[in-house]
Design a protein that fits this description.
By secondary structure, this protein is an alpha/beta fold. The protein folds into two domains: 153 residues, NAD(P)-binding Rossmann-like Domain (Rossmann fold, 3-Layer(aba) Sandwich), CATH 3.40.50; 150 residues, Dihydrodipicolinate Reductase, domain 2. The chain has ten helices and 14 strands. A seven-stranded parallel beta sheet has the order 3-2-1-4-5-7-6. It has a seven-stranded mixed beta sheet with strand order 9-10-8-11-14-13-12. A hairpin with a 6-residue loop joins strand 13 and strand 14. The two termini are 28 Å apart. The chain binds NADP nicotinamide-adenine-dinucleotide phosphate (NAP). NADP nicotinamide-adenine-dinucleotide phosphate binds next to helix 1 and helix 10.
Length: 324
């Protein structure tokens, strides 16, 4: 058994990661970090968590608890200041270590990175495209994961100057903290774009693809799940994606004519891809659906941790829906 600590366990991503760790056959939870719940029992987060779990510690103490793997589920600025413990695998679910150019943090995240010299120690890993290359892993963003699964394998087949990514996410993508923009009154029976032209996943996508895309996110009135529709000019996309993901346990390229759907990926750590041709314009349309808290966050974090620790890639993950 290898040991795990979670920081920021009371947030949505932290809670979801806790759920994966508790169901993991080869990880034992040794420290549950949460500044807001420090000193309280695990059931303070959820009444289903009983007395067998360690009580909440301040995040600093959970980080120093000596775990083999630390999952950092903190806000971006908090995570940026982390000092990773010697020898441990650390998977950061925030955006704090995804961008190689520290100057981009000021521009896209609104804070100056406190440890710019350490950014090169972190490896950005969508496991199907590039598995973790170091013990410090920058877990990709939810929108970026879906966009890269759809586009990275075909980057050499498409016109790089004209890619449009229309993205939609459920409201849990905004986190647990109360905000006017994710208030039920603003979200229910509504769909609207947000951070148009300024979303922080744009530079992350550009860094990974090597070219910029026009990325527009929208908020959906659902709790979880995310879908990106990518409009590209190019040939051979469907064949390349099928080839790339033929043996991938968590990414499914759907048969021709079948569209990815939130309902099939919600609550799982899988992603679905579908490829279509637009009869009118000849454009190729690649759609990817995943759960923002699953493959878009906790599921991928545990997948990355498994690879970094030498465990089976899908250990502890939710690979299927009810029909599998
Ligand atoms: N939500 C997603 O779909 C998603 C997907 C990919 C990546 N991420 C990234 O993962 C990190 C955590 O995201 P999240 O969605 O879990 O955010 P969140 O729910 O807002 O939680 C973030 C932190 O805020 C604290 N917190 C918990 N409940 C709170 C409340 N009611 N009011 C104020 N603060 C509260 C928690 O820290 P303590 O427990 O220490 O108090 C937690 O670590 C972020 O960097 C985010 O960008 C999120």
């Amino acid at each position: 058994m290898q040991t795990a600590a979670i920081l920021g366990a009371s947030g949505y991503a932290g809670q979801e990661t806790l759920d994966r760790v508790l169901g993991h056959p080869e990880l034992e939870l040794v420290a549950l970090g949460s500044d807001s719940l420090a000193g309280r029992g695990a059931s303070a987060l959820d009444v289903r968590l009983n007395g067998h779990l360690p009580a909440f510690l301040p995040n600093e103490e959970a980080l120093a608890a000596g775990a083999d793997v630390v999952f950092a589920c903190l806000g971006n600025e908090e995570a940026a200041a982390l000092a990773p413990p010697e020898g441990a695998v650390v998977v950061d679910l925030s955006g704090a270590h995804r961008l190689k150019d520290a100057a981009l943090y000021d521009e896209w995240y609104g804070f100056e990175h406190p440890l710019p010299g350490a950014l090169s120690d972190w490896s950005y890993a969508v496991p199907e495209l590039a598995p973790p290359a170091s013990r410090l892993v920058a877990n990709p963003g939810c929108y970026a994961t879906a966009t890269l699964l759809a586009l990275a394998p075909v980057a050499d087949l498409i016109d790089r100057t004209s890619v449009v990514v229309d993205a939609k996410s459920g409201v849990s993508g905004a986190g647990r903290a109360l905000k006017e923009s994710s208030h039920a009154g603003a979200v229910l029976e509504n769909v609207a774009p947000y951070r148009v032209g300024t979303h922080q996943h744009s530079p992350e996508i550009e860094q990974a693809l090597g070219f910029a895309v026009c990325f527009v996110p929208h908020l959906l009135p659902v709790r979880r799940g995310l879908l990106v529709t990518c409009y590209v000019n190019g040939d051979g996309v469907s064949e390349r994606l099928e080839e790339t993901y033929a043996d991938a346990p968590l990414v499914r390229v759907l048969p021709q004519g079948v569209a990815p759907e939130l309902a099939r990926v919600q609550g799982t750590d899988t992603a679905e891809l579908g490829v279509f041709e637009d009869r009118s314009t000849g454009k190729t349309i690649v759609v990817c659906a995943l759960d923002n808290l699953g493959k878009g966050a906790a599921g991928q974090a545990v997948q990355n941790a498994n690879l970094a620790l030498g465990l089976p890639e899908t250990a502890g993950l939710r690979v299927g829906g009810v029909l599998v």
